[in-house]
## 1
Amino acid sequence: MNTPSLPDPHDRPARLTVGVVGAGRVGPALAAALQLAGHRPVAVSGVSDASRRRADALLPGVPLVTPAEVLAAADLVLLTVPDDTLPGLVEGLAATGAVRPGQLLVHTSGRYGVGVLDPARRAGALPLALHPAMTFTGTPVDVQRLAGCSFGVTAPDELRLAAEALVIEMGGEPEWIAEEARPLYHAALALGANHLVTLVAEAMELLSAAGVTAPDRMLGPLLGAALDNALRSGDAALTGPVARGDAGTVEAHVEQLRAHAPRTVPGYLAMARATADRALDQGLLKPDLAAALLAVLADRAEDSAPRQAPSAAGGDHPDERPDGEDQDGTDR
């Protein structure tokens, strides 16, 4: 299999023509970053008005065409669609003959490695999985955020240099993920980033209910310090009533949450139990205090009202959903 030559990034003339299938939040930003490195975006596919606006903002002058026309025009194609859409898209493109031999086909899903691209690989495409571990807004600021961003990279051995070069040209840092480890890798990112948003949003709502006029300003320094401490020290950074074994305080928390925000109670209890377990393992929580604390958590869990399942009605167009954040991030 022949790997395309990727010259020095400082060689400014365009080297690869770039196409984007799925103008969600990720694809146009990555294509714009590749453009800064000297590549040339030539085609984008997107259906919704939001997709068109993103393409216009990040890739002005690049035509919006069908996915098949994107593949016909580009040497390097970014498949930036939601995870559940990706397998069918690849199979359809390969079955219709849209894939060209020697074409670099890159998906940005955190969940999948290169195996999902096998139909296109059999048609001669060169498969890469490049997942930026970043959350995307769909605005030009995303291109700046790619500087120093880690990418979860999976590629055949013969394409490792090409994968590294593309990530570095976008300003990122390649982190190699084995094919079989992709789902675990993606779960870790979702646990850290996606659930963090939920926790912060719930905390701001509770502070507002408590009369705090600027909950974002109050939480900013606290959460920034907590994140920095956690990244530096791991479990040693644990603080608060659970890590101290203050069972009475935790019980009071649960009573207040049940009275003012009952939907937050199951999440609070689950995180408190997880925190207690980690604090015990690290020797931060004394066993005698842990017994009383865990008893409170168990009692409160029994009489905690179950959360109502979210409505399945509505939903965004597929290329409107955050892909790769997964951001992921994935988005995706």
Note: The radius of gyration is 23 Å.
## 2
Amino acid sequence: MTTLTRNASPAAHTVHRPLKRRGQSDLKTALFFIAPAMIGFIAFYLVPTLRGIYLSFTEYSILGDPTWIGTANYEAIGKDPLFWNALAVTTQYVLINIVLQTALALGLALLMHRVAKSTFIRGTLLLPYLMANVIAALLWFWLLDYQIGIVNYFIDALGMPKVAFFGSEEWAIPTQALINTWRHMGYTALLIFAGLQAIPHHVYEVANLDGASPWQTFRKITLPLLRPVLALVLIVTIIGSFQVFDTVAVTTQGGPVNASRVLQFYIYQKAFTESDFGYGSALAVILFVILALVAFIQMKFLKGNESDLD
């Protein structure tokens, strides 16, 4: 017994040494490929984030050095009516955008899954998403113009009063939400369509055999099995909606009368127009906290990391 153990022990060592060396070699190779992305993340995300958090506790303009003032910026934000107005306007934009975009994208995804089998038709849905935000905003700014816009031309031709889509406090935010919905709807639909493709076909066959109606199949099978994808879509949509800037900057510039001054645009005004980088950084930190809380709550209650297929 002792002889067998002695004879086996060198062989065991000779087996494990190459595996260990190979593991170290794979680790070095992985680090080599990850390094560029890590350097970019540290240089363009982590460092600016940490510096922004630091600046939020200072009074700082680009002409001088930061002066530590503690939580004074956050106390001022709590008493700032423009901040609360920007938060309310942003919330209104987010609610309109996520409801419209998710509902329309879900409908398009179901049509692609059951009716439109053509790759060309599915690909055309992505065309608005391939357009830059600024170009999309300018396009709709001209189409919806009160004087020369083709949309108001047809409204006037039908005998109805023209609509000041961007010049009205009532229509400014809904109009921008509709523009964003038009641009991102195809991309969101493709995400949901990918989730539909992952649902096993035999599940629907069993439902048909049990005599389930299309509505019952959708409500009791499709929606529950789509929960992880819908959770991802909602998180991405809400985060993107809270960060809306391009459309507002190109069309209304926060007007009329602060009716479209969203939080991201207010941060830009404070930091780059008024050169109050400390206050702007504090606003950005609050936005970051809001987005983190929203994402956490969604993942917690929608159970986006779980699937009924397991």
Note: The CA atoms of residues 142 and 149 lie 6 Å apart.
